[in-house]
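Usage

Read records sequentially. Each one opens with the input sequence:
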Amino acid sequence: MIRILTCLFFLLPFQAVANGCHGDVACPLGDRSYHVLEPDGWDGETPLPVLLHFHGWARQGDVVVNHERIAGATKLRGVLLVAPNGLGKSWNFWSADTRDVGFADRVLEDVAKRYPIDPDQIYVSGYSYGGAMAWRFVCQSGDDVTALLAVAGSIRQTEDCPQAPAQVRHVHGTDDTVMGFPFGPGGDTTYPVALWRQKFHCDTAIPRGDWSVKPFLTLSRVEWTDCAQGQVTLDIHPGGHFIPHGWIGWQLDELAGRTPVYP
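and closes with the structure output:
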């Protein structure tokens, strides 16, 4: 879908900034809306990677485009940030029968009419309820998604997803009391990505050791790279419910083949 819609940009004039639809000012889309933020120094022509980010509960997309740990990462990395607005400042991620997946698809379609996008770099992320919505979206409509970058939120690990992104990256704190860390049987700490490990037919977990962006928070990484399809990465930290400093930017750097930097 996204690959076809990228052609629409060349048939339509650039609209987003001209119509005042940018940053804090939402782009209307039927009876709903979304926010968009361009990266620093964009030349107005080069196709852009896209990060579709779902906000947390009781928030809206304007928070996302002003969030240093989200927008701060995309602005410095040449990535177009897209932040849909949930109905009632929330998301319906509980089951496959949700209008929010179709809405997010329409958001990406609209973005592809407004901007030249790179169909090989479509990333989907979210935090808290938004993290769960990001899981739901790629579960139902993720075949064209390059990577899921989820923070502290997921759907049930027993779900059967008809679609999937090319790669999954998830981070969660074991002391999270809002969207509790989903320990598996016997306290299994790899269970937060069990759905994708099964979907991708992954076998061996490879510990990659500890890493950190800030000295006060250490993350432990486990990867599954022997999958029949895709790849799965899980970062765990001992903290609570938050977006770790630099985590989103770190993933974008690694996925683009760059040496990760902060911010």
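Summary fields computed downstream for this record:
- The radius of gyration is 17 Å.
- Residues 99-114 form the longest helix (16 residues).
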